[in-house]
């Protein structure tokens, strides 16, 4: 057993082995993206009872919207805007049902998953532009979605976490303050926040099964082919010189992950800048491990996300059924 596999449960090892069975039949982007769709569908738990799901354009971008089928509160459901992971190259608004189903078993809110454009066809800043377009148009969609645009948060896993963090920085830095609506909270799940090669976890988990150091470098090169862009705060948020005035943050750290150290450093930088930060250390959690929603160590993570959103006034927590 190598260091990347030490300290993880047998259930997590089964998850890793199962993920490896979803290989693309062809070495091209359509094949890889189709394999990712199949993989995500395999790990999607049953939907909570009485859930309304609709795919619709918001701000010119396709989204998948989840909300309870029950009568909405008078001001509408709080809303969580979700950026999917997938190395900026795979995934869509349809691939993260597993996240929505797991969270909506624990929190009463709406989730809007963003189908941002993918690299290598669309590189930085196109995915962030798409996310901002959805964010800005949520007010116009409030009535049809039964949401409260005054209560919104943002979340993302892996590459989606990069975009969630960047969206918060972009909203803060807008010149027109009236056009800015900062999230009440951000949930960053093992995000990529730096292209630096200096983090010790890059070497320690270089051959990790879900995301290797080489795989990370390849994804960054596809999203940010111009090396100068990798020093921009909207591309790699840890590069920002100013991390003040950002929303309360839940940093979900996978402790068996090449990204471990940069996630911990970003949380520390936020805290030093006066941002309220809650750090959850996922012992035994590998990159993309939140997809294994059935495992006890992962269920704890979703409890933590729901409790965090509740504590920031975004959504009421309830015990999972």
UniProtKB/TrEMBL annotation:
UniProtKB keywords: Hydrolase
GO terms assigned for molecular function: hydrolase activity
UniProt feature coiled coil, ranges: none
Pfam family, one: Abhydrolase_3
Superkingdom of the source species: Bacteria
Domain annotation Alpha/beta hydrolase fold-3: ranges: 80-288
PROSITE patterns the UniProt entry points to: LIPASE_GDXG_HIS
Family note: Belongs to the 'GDXG' lipolytic enzyme family.
PANTHER family tied to this protein: AB HYDROLASE SUPERFAMILY PROTEIN C4A8.06C, ALPHA_BETA HYDROLASE FOLD-3 DOMAIN-CONTAINING PROTEIN-RELATED
The protein, known as: Acetyl esterase
Species name: Paraburkholderia aspalathi
């Amino acid at each position: 057993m190598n260091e990347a596999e030490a300290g993880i449960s047998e259930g997590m090892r089964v998850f890793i082995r199962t993920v490896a069975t979803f290989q693309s039949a062809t070495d091209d982007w359509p094949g890889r993206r189709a394999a990712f769709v199949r993989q995500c569908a395999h790990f999607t738990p049953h939907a909570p009872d009485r859930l309304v799901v609709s795919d619709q354009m918001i701000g010119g971008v396709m989204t998948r919207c989840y909300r309870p089928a029950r009568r909405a509160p008078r001001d509408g459901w709080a809303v969580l805007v979700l950026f999917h992971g997938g190395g900026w190259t795979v995934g869509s608004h349809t691939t993260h049902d597993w996240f929505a189903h797991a969270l909506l078993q624990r929190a009463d809110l709406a989730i809007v998953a963003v189908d941002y454009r993918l690299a290598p066809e669309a590189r930085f800043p196109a995915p962030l532009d798409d996310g901002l377009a959805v964010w800005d148009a949520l007010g116009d969609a409030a009535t049809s979605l039964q949401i409260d645009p005054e209560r919104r948060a943002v979340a993302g896993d892996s590459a989606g976490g990069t975009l969630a963090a960047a969206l918060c920085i972009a909203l803060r830095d807008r010149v027109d303050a009236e056009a800015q609506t900062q999230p009440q909270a951000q949930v960053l799940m093992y995000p990529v926040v730096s292209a630096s090669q200096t983090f010790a976890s890059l070497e320690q988990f270089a051959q990790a099964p879900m995301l290797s150091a080489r795989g990370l470098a390849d994804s960054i090169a596809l999203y940010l082919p111009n090396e100068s862009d990798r020093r921009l705060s909207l591309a790699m948020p840890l590069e920002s010189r100013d991390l003040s005035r950002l929303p309360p943050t839940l940093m979900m750290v996978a402790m068996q992950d090449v990204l471990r150290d940069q996630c911990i450093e970003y949380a520390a930088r936020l805290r030093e800048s006066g941002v309220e930060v809650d750090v959850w250390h996922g012992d035994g959690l590998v990159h993309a491990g939140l997809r294994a929603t059935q495992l006890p160590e992962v269920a704890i993570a979703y409890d933590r996300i729901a409790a965090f959103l509740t504590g920031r006034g975004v959504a009421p927590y309830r015990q999972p059924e």
